[in-house]
Amino acid sequence: MTTIQSIAGQDEQHPDVALVQRVREGDVSAYDTLVRKYERQIFRIAQHITQNREDAEDVMQDAFLKAYEKLEQFQGNSKFYTWLVRIAVNESLMRLRKRRTGKMVSIDEDLETEEGTVPRDLADWAPDPEQNYTQSELGQILEKTIKGLPPGFKVVFELRDVQGLSTEDTAEALGLSIPAVKSRLLRARLQLRERLSRYFRNKPGSRQAGPKVARAEP
Amino acid sequence: MTCTEFIALLDDIIDDSVAAETRAEVEKHMHKCGHCEVVFNTTRKTIEIYRSHQIYDLPNDLRERLHAAIMARCKKGC
Fold it and tell me: pLDDT (tens digit, 9 = 90+) per residue, A179-212?
């Protein structure tokens, strides 16, 4: 992985490289730019793993502070963002372990379940099914749907499909092999599809398809 | 191509990274198998929806507060 990235990285320099160099030379404003660039993404990753807003806020702060402290250790043969994600994932898992004392939580546990590899719900969806819900209802559906997936599946889906990272960068950020990323991505995509089908499947004669969405707790 | 083979290739089909020869087989299979066509379309839609309606977004006021806290500690040397 590292070898592939090093070769690929020789062609052009990623804009973060110059920012990291400026931070190393003592320019804190360059770090401000890096934090602004990635804070939303890091927060989302932390929220996916911890499932807790306050924990995600703490993880986001701790990850950026830790990255700042350890910047000398950043080798530059990986991208700054993948290195940062790795710190954030470790911080998130540590927080989760603290909260669920005694329960092992890991990103690389291989969950060989049948669920998600064999599509069961084969009904087609309504055209633009998300338009049957308000923005807030849709947000609740999407959160509720992804919540039940194992942390490793959620983070792979978030990095690959939502944030658009390559399979190689996702593998490096999570310390997983490329086949492991691919297998998690397929299962995550299929499981989310299956669960969303409950809300989005085509029901003739009804514009308000799908089960009722629970209102947010106060 | 069987349905199992189709599902095994699903990610590559969605990411448009299958060889031209395989793509022809994939299209032939989807043409005759309505179930696989539904799985392909709805999986692609799943990704599209999650990409365009990002969940766990950081509200601006919270973002500014956290950002300020991080930078204040960095300026102090953490």
Answer: 999 999 999 999 999 999 999 988 765 544 455 5
Distance, in Å, from the CA atom of A181 to the CA atom of A156, rounded to the nearest integer, reads 7
| Cβ pair A201, A210 in contact under 8 A | yes
Residues of chain A with Cβ-Cβ distance to B46 below 8 Å are 189, 192-193, 196
Residue contact B35–A157, C-beta within 8 A:
no
Q: Does A202 touch chain B (CB under 8 A)?
A: no
Residue-level pLDDT at A76: 78
Q: The complex's ipTM?
A: 0.92
Domain-wise residue ranges, chain B: 3-75
Give the separation between CA B15 and CA A151, rounded to whole angstroms.
Answer: 23
Q: How far apart are CA A148 and CA A191, in angstroms?
A: 10
Q: Which domains does chain A have, with CATH numbers?
A: 2-99 (1.10.1740.10), 129-200 (1.10.10.10)
- The pLDDT value recorded for residue A9 is 47
What is the pLDDT at residue A217? 44
Question: What is the model's pTM?
Answer: 0.86
A104 neighbors A76 (Cβ within 8 angstroms) = no
- A130 burial level (CB within 10 Å; 0-12, 13-18, 19+): buried
Residues of A in Cβ contact (< 8 Å) with B7: 117-119, 190
Using the predicted structure, report yes or no on whether residue A117 has a pLDDT greater than 80: no
